[in-house]
Amino acid sequence: MAPPNVTDGNDNGYRMVPSNEPEENYEKVQNIEETDKDVAKEKEKHLFEKAPLKEDSEPEAAVVVPPDGGWGWVIVVASFMCNMVVDGIIFSFGAFLPGIAESFDVSKASVTLVGSLMSGFYLISGPFASALANRYGFQLVAIVGSVLGTTAFAISYFATNVQFLCISYGVLGGIGFGLIYVPSVITVGFYFERWRALATGIAVCGSGIGTFLFAPLSKWMIEKMGWRTSLLFQGAIVLSCVLYGLAFKPLKPTKIKDIDEADGKELVMDPSKLPVATKVKMEEAMRRIRRGSTVSAYDHQTSISRMLGVNNNSDYPRVSDVYQTINIPSRKILETYIEKRLSVPSISEKDKPKSYDLKQNLLEGKNPIIIVPKRNRTTSQNEESEVNRPLYRDDIFFCASLKRLPQYTSRTSIAYNLAVTRLPTKNDVEEEIKHTCKLCPEAVKRTLATMLDYSLLKSPSFILLSVGGFLTMMGFYVPFMYLVDRATFHKMDLDTAVWLVSSIGIANTFGRVMCGVLSSFPSVNALLVTNVALTIGGVATIFSGISMTTEYQFFYAVVFGLSIACFASLRSIIVVDLLGLEKLTNAFGLLLLFQGVAAIIGAPLAGAFRDYTGGYEYSFYLSGSMLLSSAVICYPLNYLNKWEKKRNNKLQREKTVPV
Fold it and tell me: Domain residue spans in the chain?
């Protein structure tokens, strides 16, 4: 029996590898007396040969621990303001329809496409904005988005036709808003853990307040200055987001050893406590490596992953998985695995678990924990602690209370952060430290490979959820675009009608607060609440035209605002309940794409109905039907998901049964 691979924990700058000593020498270790530690240590050294560490040794593992306050509250205010500006402008675009249509002598349905393109690209650009934020940080991406959005509004001042506006205001402005939106949404969750639900709830309320304020403000500006100058004025407001973006300062990651010392607890676990699913995953990776895979250690790569040369983020080990134990068959396999897949953290001798016993593990045939010794600090190694990859967290898009997550409730705060943070690769860290200039760095490619991984479309639950989200967004923007126009068409005073959109905004704000309170109770079924809310909103939209009295129209606006608040607030909870936390980033990316395409289609289609019929009734019938349909098809989603989980568990058991 040959000795398994083991690594010395001494601070001597060397790594142990198995020697060619005969097996009988190895058997002598089993007879070493426990009390004679010095002799045992000396004899163990004779059984191995030393090999110097490479200069480019793997970096130390680090994790971001949210401070839960402090500067985080400044970020909440900055995020609130960004949401207020971006959503306020998008939802108030309906005020520009009459002026632009008159200037270019086109139908309002044609002008609607301009606002719809902005809404659509604002969502579609989400995965790409996330990828950039992962590599360059929230701060830079938000600032670039603010400048790009301002530029788009300035260019739109010189528009000569609707097509010009579609490109300048719709596409360019939408991309700029997407670059502002992503940092403002996820940076709050990056700073908060215990108070995440509260902080995120305050930040997203900016959307409703912005809708409330910008609807009358846009109407006033257009009356006083015309639509072109109003666009310039809005562009100046967008430029103010540069100041808010400056507040999105990055958090410095904490090294594992520092967490250990500060907390006074051992973080390394016994190999037997490693989850079965993780063991299976690591063993499958090893099998792929032995077969000589040069691209991936996993079989389910999509063409996007192959093209980018990286994996979905969920394929990479969590910090807790690798930091605690790794089942490695040999040194050669270890080096190959490290090179292709991950960066192993440095763990000092004191990090060995108290129960660890080399002799006993060898007797029982167990693989010991792989210990990478400390190294002398250099400037470049100290810089490793600055590597910050927010999109490598599984929970980065989770906006509700973490108490809903079993990963959080079953662990301490530190253990939770270790369990939701994925390791960067060696190449990723080197690009950061050496400031390598690449067109598409690995941190960007890995995020895109995660958010655009269409293998998730194999899940029936996700397909149904995606279709539901698509239909919801088809009807989502129609009332924002046409509610005021329909009211004035039916002789309501414009000064009164403009407050209909504001009513949607204020109701949306209250709805988000109520959803935040509801979501703090783990027993609340987020999917059912959303479906009921969308059903009510859809029915109300279908029957919104049965009376054009001022009272009834304001009643409808409030009901609609409350219903869409549930959809916006509970979406991340639904995804986690159905697919699990590790699929959240992937699902969020694909949902943004589907919803962005739907946003581009919905309002112009409703406008075409208006031009064809000469009235707004069928436009609102279409919108309400889309909302209602999205709820109806998702009512059986929980049952479908239970069936899917049973099927997947059965397949997993079949795969793990030895042949």
Answer: 72-251+453-647
Instruction: Report H helices in 401-525.
Output: 406-409, 413-419, 426-433, 442-451, 460-476, 478-489, 494-497, 499-519
CA distance 548 to 303: 53
Cβ-contact 390, 190 below 8 angstroms: yes
What's the chain's Rg over C-alpha atoms? 28
Tokens representing residue 389 in the block:
């990859």
535's enclosing H/E stretch is helix 526-542
**Percentage of the chain surpassing pLDDT 70?**
71
H/E stretch holding 18: strand 14-18
Reduced to 3 states (helix: H, G, I; strand: E, B; else coil), residue 55 is coil
One of 3.40.50.2300, 3.40.50.920, 3.40.50.300, 1.20.1250.20 is the CATH number of 72-251+453-647, namely 1.20.1250.20
pLDDT tens by residue, 621-634: 999 999 999 999 99
Backbone φ and ψ of 520, nearest 5°: -75, -10
pLDDT in tens, 493-508: 988 999 999 999 999 9
DSSP 294-308: SS-S-S---HHHHHH
**Amino acid identity, position 117:** L
Give the contacts of 590 (CB within 8 A, at least 6 positions apart). 451, 452, 453, 454, 456, 457, 462, 466
